[in-house]
Amino acid sequence: QVQLVESGGGLVQAGGSLRLSCVASGRFFSINAMNWYRQAPGKQRELVASISSGGSTNYADSVKGRFTISRNNAKNTMFLQMNSLKPEDTAVYYCNADSFVSLDVGVVNYWGRGTQVTVSS
């Protein structure tokens, strides 16, 4: 019912920047909280940043001051501006969102397929 598609990943040198985007499409009443997660090889998936429908944000300590999460509710889009990238930021970045799908279905959590971010030293 809801599709999340990430874009903007790629290869960048340490100290560089990337901007990730996530677009939600499909049939739903609203997109509520949206999140960026990441998973590095051999590691568990971790929460990077969250943003509520009202714009309140939270960040993992490892990215505070370097990453900025934002969203455009009118376009059902979320962004992650990543600055001062480090090799340890290398991971697959996933978009995650809670969507109020319908009165019958209620709120459902969805995942995108991910976009690779690679930071070279």
Question: Please, could you describe this protein's structure?
Answer:
- This protein is mostly beta strands.
- It has no helices and eleven strands.
- Strands 2, 4, 5, 6, 9, 10 and 11 form a seven-stranded mixed β-sheet that branches.
- It is elongated, with a radius of gyration of 14 Å.
- The mean pLDDT is 96.
What is this entry, summarized?
Helices cover 0% and strands 61% of the residues. It has strands at residues 2-7, 10-13, 18-26, 30-39, 46-51, 57-59, 67-72, 77-82, 91-102, 106-111, 115-120.
Write down the oligomeric state.
Answer: single chain
Would you tell me the overall average pLDDT? 96
Q: Major β-sheet, in short?
A: 7 strands, mixed
SSE pattern, N- to C-terminal? EEEEEEEEEEE
Report, as a whole number of angstroms, the end-to-end distance: 40 Å
Contiguous helical run count = 0
DSSP E strands, number = 11
Report the β-strand fraction as a percent range. over 45%
Radius of gyration of CA atoms, rounded to a whole number: 14 Å
Shape: elongated
Proportion in helices: under 10%
Runs in which pLDDT lies below 50 for 5 or more consecutive residues are none
Look at the helices and sheets and give the structural class: mainly beta
